[in-house]
């Protein structure tokens, strides 16, 4: 029964998600809470792991959550459930999209979807940020303010200088080790 629930849940997420993995995170979190497959803290840990491992974040989340809930078969089934709608839609729409390439209805549809996608990604960013930065207004030298500073610096460097994001992750990890890990501040 759990395998069927995993497949249907992730099929639904895959079917109604536009904008990639980050846009799927609010839907994945909602479903995890409904099914009580994990706590919010566990979900945020899986999101962090999914961001650091190779592959699409939503696929990684589906695999990890499926593994937690149903072992190896659960991981495979959840991932298959997430991917199946995209494969079916792409197969069905490939010839249609080529024929309606410049059709006004197609442009209107994507005109409406793009802002929602940005909103879902922004929500995912805020959700992750709230769990990353637990600000204490009395302690201006807290670790959380340093995390915000690191976030802003990374954003500016990525946006302005187009530095490779993998390089930025490595540099940020080294900075974290130097500031907190090696001197025992965390």
From TrEMBL:
<feature type="transmembrane region" description="Helical">
    <location>
        <begin position="109"/>
        <end position="128"/>
    </location>
</feature>
<feature type="transmembrane region" description="Helical">
    <location>
        <begin position="73"/>
        <end position="97"/>
    </location>
</feature>
<dbReference type="InterPro" id="IPR003370">
    <property type="entry name" value="Chromate_transpt"/>
</dbReference>
<comment type="similarity">
    <text>Belongs to the chromate ion transporter (CHR) (TC 2.A.51) family.</text>
</comment>
<dbReference type="Pfam" id="PF02417">
    <property type="entry name" value="Chromate_transp"/>
</dbReference>
<feature type="transmembrane region" description="Helical">
    <location>
        <begin position="6"/>
        <end position="25"/>
    </location>
</feature>
<keyword id="KW-1133">Transmembrane helix</keyword>
<dbReference type="InterPro" id="IPR052518">
    <property type="entry name" value="CHR_Transporter"/>
</dbReference>
<keyword id="KW-1003">Cell membrane</keyword>
<feature type="transmembrane region" description="Helical">
    <location>
        <begin position="166"/>
        <end position="185"/>
    </location>
</feature>
<feature type="transmembrane region" description="Helical">
    <location>
        <begin position="140"/>
        <end position="159"/>
    </location>
</feature>
<keyword id="KW-0472">Membrane</keyword>
<keyword id="KW-0812">Transmembrane</keyword>
<protein>
    <submittedName>
        <fullName>Chromate transporter</fullName>
    </submittedName>
</protein>
């Amino acid at each position: 029964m759990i395998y069927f629930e995993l497949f249907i849940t992730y099929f639904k997420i895959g079917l109604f998600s536009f904008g990639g993995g980050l846009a799927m995170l609010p839907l994945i979190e909602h479903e995890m809470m409904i099914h009580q497959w994990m706590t919010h803290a566990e979900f945020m840990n899986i999101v962090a792991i999914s961001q650091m491992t190779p592959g699409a974040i939503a696929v990684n989340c589906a695999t990890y959550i499926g593994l937690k809930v149903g072992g190896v078969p659960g991981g495979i089934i959840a991932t298959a459930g997430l991917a199946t709608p995209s494969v079916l839609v792409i197969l069905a729409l490939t010839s249609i999209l080529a024929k309606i390439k410049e059709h006004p209805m197609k442009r209107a549809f994507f005109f409406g979807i793009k802002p929602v996608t940005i909103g879902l990604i922004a929500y995912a960013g805020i959700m992750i940020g709230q769990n990353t930065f637990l600000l204490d207004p009395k302690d201006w030298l807290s670790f959380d303010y340093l995390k915000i500073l690191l976030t802003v610096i990374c954003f500016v460097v990525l946006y302005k200088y187009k530095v490779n994001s993998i390089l930025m992750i490595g540099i940020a990890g080294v900075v974290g080790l130097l500031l907190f890990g090696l001197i025992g501040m965390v």
